[in-house]
Amino acid sequence: MGSLFDGSFLRVAMTDRCRCARPLPEQVARVAGAYDALIMREKDLDDGAYAALAREVMAACDRAGVAFIAHGHVLAAREAGASRLHLPLPALGRVGRPEGFALVGTNVHEVDEVAVAEGLGADYLVASPVFAPSCKPLPGRGVAFLEQVIAAAHVPVLALGGITDATEPAVRAAGAAGAVRMSDAMA
């Protein structure tokens, strides 16, 4: 599973370049001290544009000591040289665990998806939305949902959705391996 999950609480930034006031490589440098890893989630890009941006962001992550995780673009991630990949659960179900990645993760939105995700070879899970996210109108599932996912899982579980300085202590107390933030990471 690489060195990402070493027992310490992992803080992960998730990108959204459309909400960010500066280019992503600059934003990586700006938030580097606050995050251990970055998931580059730029769903609107085609594979060529994703690979080009991924190379720039990976270089910025390397300089900042932040682990880079590609999101959704298997071929572009491979072309860019990414060693970690995050896929939505439906995509992981369609393509299976892609070869050549040291770490593959996925999202779960229901407790019964944990066994499915693990059966497909996921190394870590992102439970979401734990709290109501500020970037889309979804209700949060709550800490009890996160605890149920953690109890069902045999791999590390990260929390996503409405994670802030105020909500992160509850995520830690629930036993999550870490938290994923988008809104404040891209501000």
UniProtKB/TrEMBL annotation:
Annotated GO CC locations: cytoplasm
Ranges where the Thiamine phosphate synthase/TenI domain occurs: 15-183
One Pfam family cited in the UniProt record for this chain: TMP-TENI
A GO term, aspect molecular function: thiamine-phosphate diphosphorylase activity
Pathway where this protein functions: Cofactor biosynthesis; thiamine diphosphate biosynthesis
Record flagged with keyword Repeat: no
Gene Ontology terms describing biological process: thiamine biosynthetic process
Keywords associated with the record: Thiamine biosynthesis
Magnesium as UniProt keyword: no
Annotated PANTHER family: THIAMINE-PHOSPHATE PYROPHOSPHORYLASE, THIAMINE-PHOSPHATE SYNTHASE
Biological role stated in the UniProt entry: Condenses 4-methyl-5-(beta-hydroxyethyl)thiazole monophosphate (THZ-P) and 2-methyl-4-amino-5-hydroxymethyl pyrimidine pyrophosphate (HMP-PP) to form thiamine monophosphate (TMP).
Annotated protein name in UniProt: Thiamine phosphate synthase
Native source species: Thermophilibacter provencensis
